[in-house]
Predict the 3D structure of the following.
Amino acid sequence: MTDIRDAGLVRETLLTTVPAATASAVAREVLLATPTGLLVSGLVREVLVPDTGTGTGAAQYAVSVIT
Amino acid sequence: MALLHLDGFDKFGGINAVGTNVVALLTAGEWTSVTSTSHQIVAPLSSTGFAVQLGTSATMTKTLPTTYSRLIGGIRFSSTLQANAGLSFLDAGTAQASITVNTTGTVSVRTGSITGTVLGTSSATVTANTTHYLEWDITFANAGLYQLWLDGVSILSGSGDTTGTANSYANQLQLAMAAVTGAIIYDDLYLFDTSGSTNNAVLTTSPRIETQFPTSDGAVQFAIGASLVGSSTSRSTGSYNAAANNLYVRPIIPTANCTVNAIGVLPAATNASVQLRPVLYADSSGVPGALLSAGSTVVGMTSGVMQNLPLTTPQALVAGTRYWLGAMNDLALSTGYTTQDTSAAGRSATATFASGAPGTAPATTAGQVTAVIFGVASGVATNAYEVSQNPPQGTYSYLYDATVGHEDLYNFPALTAAAPTIYAAAVKGSVAKSDAGAKTISLRTKSGATDSAGSASSLAPGTSYGWMTSLFATDPNTGAAWTVAALNAAQGGVKVET
């Protein structure tokens, strides 16, 4: 039995180039509402007060050496 | 202005031994620059919050609003006394004068840096690893006057050359540790100049700074940009390393009702081919139980780049309830997820990746690293939640607004202890702008019917989040010193100015 692949059979086809618009990629760009303006990620209030003696720092003053 | 600056070192997140991360937090607006990365956030030296520790060769420098011929201030400290450490007053980077806690426990004033010529040394001493409050009043001149107080008691005074440049002023404050093994911890910093009618002399009451975070909304107009449950911050070195076909979870207890849409993971290494799947389990008597939600496979992860693992079905979480968030992986991860902290609350089990997420969590092994794994959330009811994360979570938790005049005001907790005097308050915001256009804000205090911008009516944030400050030395409603009742009732917030 003859294997057609061994016979080296090929088909070559001359195609007509069709002038037309082509597109290799299509993208859709959408203008979205994104967070704009000012962005706030943290907020604190820092308060300066006397140490009332309840802190660990105050507790250790008793062992400080002041001459 | 008499009050120049205060810092309780409480807003840089919890205890943190990852020097590079601590440095990033310190220099996000509050401190101008550092040297070395041997900085840590440690337990406080006073009753609330945290403190900062400087190790070998570490410095942290803050550039002040202008130049000052005389500076008054105080700071709480605890030194190992292994090396001279202290603080320096700089003129554009060159030390004018310094105060050092010496290895002998004495305290000195020096010309120039912390290794400079001694102008005077106290006879008073401190012992290693004890907490004290140091205050100073120093004038910068060739024959500059200086005086120091320790725990409210004057310990040294004199005069000498308190300049290292030709200028008789300083414009930077630097906390510094010598290039020797050892450490010094700082807390509760205040800085005054001599202007104004208040806060222009040393306090001598060993003051402390209580940092308060918003607890609820007052009146809000900003919109929520992003929410998270958990934290994206790594505060401990190391990583969770997973075997092949592994299921890892860690517990999270939300502090607000929310819906989790995805699981965020911070990889400690790059692996382009590992397959990951998010899982979210209910708690069952302290261990993961029923599967609440999972997601489809995500391939690959990059070291240091937060990996988003979307859940197929968003899951509602209830505040105060424990959940287990985590991920499954197919390939072994010899270096897996970045460590969050030292709690070792993670759990793991063998679970075949190809079989999907187990409907009920298999028996898991406790004591695993607590990894940086959090919930990317929505549906949080309050704006205060977004801005009360410590440290601020940036793009993972923020509010936004572009309408001039819009304002958010939040309520704060009462002071933890009744204070006989309130010297000053500051409202600080971690703020950014979304693009290059000109935008300004103010940081507000509303006391009674008075809504004030404090010391800074127009602050211009950059495009990266950074701390900005407005000072409120007195109650804007009365113009007099704050009372505890007025401060506790006052709201704070942020307003779009331009």
